[in-house]
Amino acid sequence: MKKNSKSQKQLQDATEIYKERFDKHYDELKWLYMELYDNSSMFAELCDNMMHFFSERNEQLKSMDCSRELCNDWYKQNDMLGMMFYIDNFAGNMKGVKSKLDYIEKCNVNYIHLMPFLETPEGRSDGGYAVSDFRKVQENLGSMKELEALANACHKKGINVCMDFVMNHTSEDHEWAKKARQGDGEYMSRYFFFDNSELPSLYEKTVPQVFPTTAPGNFTWLPDAGHFVMTTFYPYQWDLNYKNPRVFNEMMYNFLYLANRGIDIIRIDAVPYIWKELNTSCRNLPQVHTIVRMMRMISEIVCPGVLLLGEVVMEPAKVVPYFGTVEKPECHMLYNVTTMATTWHTVATRDVRLLKRQLDIVNSLPKDYVFLNYLRCHDDIGWGLDYDTLRLEGIEERSHKQYLNDYFQGYAGESNSRGELYNADPVTGDARFCGTTASMCGIEKAASTQDDEMMEKAIRLDVMLHAYMFMQSGIPVLYSGDEIGQFNDYTYKENPNKADDSRYIHRGAMNWTLAENISKHDTTEGKIFNALKQLEQIRKSEKVFVSNADTWTVETGDKSVLCMGRYLDGDKIIGLFNFSEYDKTVSVSETDDGYADMISGKDIKLNEVHIPAYRFYYLKKK
Ligand code: GLC
After folding, report:
1. Which residues line ligand 1 (CB under 6 A)?
2. What is the pLDDT of residues 499-527, one digit of tens each?
3. How far apart are CA 124 and CA 110, in angstroms?
4. How far is the CA of 531 from the centre of ligand 1 (A)?
5. Radius of gyration of the chain (CA)
6. Confidence of residue 125 (pLDDT cuts 50, 70, 90)
7. Euclidean distance between CA atoms 183 and 226, whole angstroms
8. Atom number, ligand 1, closest to the C-alpha of residue 129
9. What is the torsion angle, in degrees rounded to the nearest 10, for the CA atoms of residue 420, residue 426, residue 428 and residue 433?
């Protein structure tokens, strides 16, 4: 009897909480939905399903939602550290990942991005980014039950779980695509089908190509169906038509279903592409923002503990609008992609000026914006730099991209990097680049040539880059394997399903034998792991690393030495990073109130800092 009345009370509380959240967003949600779809019965269906997914959400997740609502800065703290990995590469399957949570904790990581794990056809999967069933886990990786168990085990350890929501397209093997291919009009209208080339060729006039070499064009001819279908990415990834409210609703139900499995962070894959209009680039159209804003409201109503991470791999002016506004936020977090690409430009040129300028742009943005900072991820590095500024120095886009690609292949300049080109476009001369952090820093070459001096420098560069990345505001995300300096993996060339896609060069399996070396301080793995560990511990023990601290850059008088400052409530840290292979002495234009190096404990005078090649300092005001 007692138990019954308790659960009734809980039910009542939950209904009230839901109602409060729903009422808060109802007018705006309805307004945006009707503006886009003008379909009140589909809107009513959406609302019914939101309620359904809320009641299906388990008590634990609901109480986490409530505590996160009360402390909505929870993800902006200085202890946040992410790691991304493919489940099979990292630990075989979901159970394997669960058994490796101690290692993840040892890495100070409290957020894991599980790369795409939903059902996808073998050989036509784009690394899992072609989903054939949004409610099924790839059999070799586990099951939905195992995902829930993994998320639960993570939550017990304070680890957040991130997954991809690939919403721009489905696999051609998705049930909808199969029905569309058979000519079912209802399903054809969920994609972009054309029975002749007239409209596709008009689109091609204004829509750029994502994979010009590996998947040229934006349409695929389906001989059996006698139609073209829009395929912005690979031919087996069919673009969804969000003009159809059925697509939006169903995808939102998939989103909420996945959130309810215990996911904390949902990465909205390729989001700029989700709305298409003829005579446009089909990127970043205003309707994309309407959709993301609706997603934000829907998740704030049903699962407010869940964060949206937008994948917008574009220049800052295009990225920032995805944060929305203070009153009408869209994504919680976005990738700091231009900073990442500019970092590698700086490694190749030893010239920090463009990076300083880029950091100044990021530092001038509202402190509420949270960026994901990273050195490498699963994708290639596109050389999206600020060429207008470089041009003032006489550096042209095409020749500079060529230089960077040559440099990182180890052909130009004083380079020990190894890696491969990606989607080299013979028409534009454009190419992107693939390789692991360690290989790009020269660790692979130093190991293969057994050059100890080269190795020492390469490790220093690798650690310095991490120190610099940790100094930025936002959430640093490690690419799995980088914590032990893993090299490129060339075995993808032997796999016909992967051989054409050089991104697999940096998607190798975690080498657990090498990882055992982390306790041996004289090994490459031990040196990198322990240096990063020290930085991670500093970062999480110093409040000044919270995402909304004051941040700025400082002149050093040397174009190879970058200086960044952070300030919060009387605490101040100055970071110095030498991007060159030469020792430097610099003078930092900051008032010297007395600083000590946080690593060695030594006092350092700002007017004359000696900084060895590829070294860094974290200087703390005493
Ligand atoms: C995103 C992913 C990339 C994938 C593409 C298509 O950009 O990061 O790996 O190829 O989407 O889904």
Report:
1. 126-127, 129, 166, 233, 269-270, 311, 378-379
2. 999 999 999 999 999 999 999 999 999 99
3. 32
4. 32
5. 25
6. very high
7. 9
8. 12
9. -10
Distance (Å, whole) CA 166 – CA 270: 7
The one-letter code for the residue type at 595 is Y
Ligand 1 centroid to residue 269 C-alpha, Å: 7
Backbone angles phi, psi at 293, to 5 degrees: -65, -40
Q: How far apart are CA 415 and CA 408, in angstroms?
A: 7
Q: How far is the CA of 155 from the centre of ligand 1 (A)?
A: 27
CA geometry: angle at 605 spanning 604 and 609, to 5°? 80
The token pair at 193 is 């089908």
Specify the residue with its C-alpha closest to ligand 1, atom 7.
270
As a whole number, the mean pLDDT across the chain is 96
Residues 6 or more apart in contact with residue 425 via CB below 8 angstroms: 209, 212, 213, 431
Average of per-residue pLDDT across 554-569: 97
Rounded distance, CA 55 to CA 62, Å?
10
Is the predicted pLDDT of residue 299 greater than 80, yes or no? yes
Report helix angle 40-56 to 286-302, nearest 10: 40
Task: Give pLDDT tens digits for 274-287.
Answer: 999 999 999 999 99
d(CA 386, CA 390): 7
386 has catalytic annotation:
no
Confidence of residue 1 (pLDDT cuts 50, 70, 90): very low
Helix (H) / strand (E) containing 198: helix 198-206
- Contact between 471 and 576 under an 8 Å Cβ cutoff? The reply is no
Q: How far is the CA of 503 from the centre of ligand 1 (A)?
A: 11
Contact indicator for 310, 333 with CB cutoff of 8 Å: yes
Q: Measuring CA to CA, how many Å separate 472 from each of 184, 314, 373, 481, 614?
A: 51, 19, 7, 21, 18
| DSSP bridge partners of 137 | 118
> Do the beta carbons of residue 208 and residue 100 sit within 8 Å?
no
| CA count, 13 A, side-chain hemisphere, 406 | 12
Q: Which two tokens stand for residue 251?
A: 């995808």
> Are the beta carbons of 162 and 259 closer than 8 angstroms?
no
Please report, as a single letter, which amino acid is at residue 563: C
Distance CA 310, CA 292 (A): 9
Residue-wise DSSP of 8-67: HHHHHHHHHHHHHHHHHHHHHHHHHHHHHH--HHHHHHHHHHHHHHHHHS-HHHHHHHHH
Active site residue 73: no
State the amino acid at position 476 in one-letter form. Answer: P
Q: Which of 88, 126, 239, 311 is catalytic?
A: 311
- In this structure, the number of other CB atoms found within 10 A of the CB of residue 148 comes to 16
Mean pLDDT (whole number) for 356-375: 96
